[in-house]
Design brief:
- It is a single chain.
- The chain has helices spanning 12-21, 46-51, 114-127, 156-167, 211-215, and strands spanning 5-8, 28-32, 62-63, 69-70, 100-102, 105-107, 130-131, 177-178, 224-228, 230-237, 244-251, 256-260.
- The protein is of the alpha+beta class.
- It has two domains: 1-86 and 205-262, FAD/NAD(P)-binding domain (3-Layer(bba) Sandwich); 88-178, no CATH class.
- The strands form five sheets. It has a three-stranded parallel β-sheet with strand order 1-2-9, with helices on one face. It has a three-stranded antiparallel β-sheet with strand order 10-11-12, with no helix packed on it. A two-stranded antiparallel sheet has the order 3-4.
- The longest helix is centred in the middle third of the chain and has 14 residues, at 114-127.
- Bound molecules: flavin-adenine dinucleotide and iron/sulfur cluster.
- Iron/sulfur cluster binds next to loops.
């Protein structure tokens, strides 16, 4: 039997993991319940995207705490919810890792702190083509280097607003965004700065998402296998109950398979 290290899902989490593990040569099997999101004119159509929720699951209902069904606004595609995300890629702040008192209770301190994550944020910003400007946002946590790319320029009207509020003593800043964007040479830019982005899939693959930046670059590798339409329905553990050593998968072609990972 062929054994694999299995990654379930290709969202920001699974996609990033697959991209990082692929060069190790490990035999990796990626199980993704969705398919590749089609590049089609509806990608940028507000009616299709917002009124008809074309890219969110329709077949599945979730329950709220009162037991009432609702349609979750969630995506099952290669790339997961990052296919429709707004590409705003901010780091958590140092205080986010400390004990927090909220209206509904206490959020305990993390065992790891911001400084433990900083080197990984730096790697992730490279992987996801983040454009931004350090030093503008007074709340930003310390960083070991600049953003990989210069900030996405404000539209002229936005620049005016930024200038005016800055003159009032406030601190507007360029939102760090993950885009395949070159404003210096537009012929090298996949992103065309269209007027739809947050909530929409990108028709021209200009958004730095986990499909475009993580999964597609690993597809040529012999040690990485991607199965789409593969919904994991069960995790099987060893006798200790602590280690997952097999999974059950329901294929969209009505086939059920058992895949061991050890
Ligand atoms: C409209 C919108 C805008 C957003 N904007 C931003 C933003 O600007 N900045 C930001 O930081 N975040 C944003 N987010 C949030 C961000 O997209 C998510 O936090 C992130 O994508 C979550 O990644 P994930 O890998 O944890 O989960 P998901 O993206 O949900 O990925 C899970 C993956 O697993 C697959 N899967 C699920 N169940 C199974 C199963 N049983 N078997 C096999 N595969 C399975 C799914 O199909 C999916 O591919 C936005 C989200 C939405 C919906
Ligand atoms: S072209 Fe650029 S602005 Fe438009 S959806 Fe794609 S990434 Fe977003």
């Amino acid at each position: 039997m062929t054994t694999y290290d299995i990654i379930i899902g290709t969202g920001a989490g699974g996609g990033t993991l697959a991209h990082q593990l692929a060069p190790t040569g490990k035999r990796i099997l990626i199980l993704e319940r969705g398919d590749f999101l089609p590049q089609e004119k509806e990608n940028w159509n507000p009616e299709s995207v917002y009124q008809k929720s074309r890219y969110y699951t329709h077949e599945e209902k979730w329950m709220d705490k009162a037991g009432e069904e609702f349609s979750p606004q969630t995506c099952y595609w290669v790339g997961g919810n990052a296919k429709v995300y707004g590409s705003a890629l901010l780091r958590l702040r140092e205080r986010d890792f400390e004990t927090g008192q909220h209206k509904s209770g206490i959020s305990p301190a993390w065992p790891l702190k911001y400084r433990d994550f900083e080197p990984y944020y730096a790697q992730a910003e490279k992987l996801f083509d983040v454009h931004g400007q350090r030093g503008e946002d007074p709340t930003e946590p310390p960083a070991s280097g600049d953003y990989p790319y210069p900030p996405a320029l404000h539209e002229p009207a936005m620049q005016k607003i930024a200038n005016n509020i800055k003159a009032e003593g406030y601190h507007p800043f360029h939102l760090p965004v993950g885009l395949k964007l070159s404003e210096i040479d537009k012929t090298l830019s996949q992103c065309i700065r269209c007027d739809t982005c947050d909530g929409y899939p990108c028709l021209v693959h200009g958004k730095a998402d986990s499909d475009v930046n993580c999964i597609r670059p690993t597809r040529h590798l012999d040690n990485v296998t991607l199965l789409t339409g593969a919904k994991v329905t069960r995790l099987h553990t060893d006798a200790s109950g602590r280690e997952v050593n097999a999974v059950s998968v329901e294929m969209s072609v009505e086939m059920s398979v058992e895949i061991g990972n050890r």
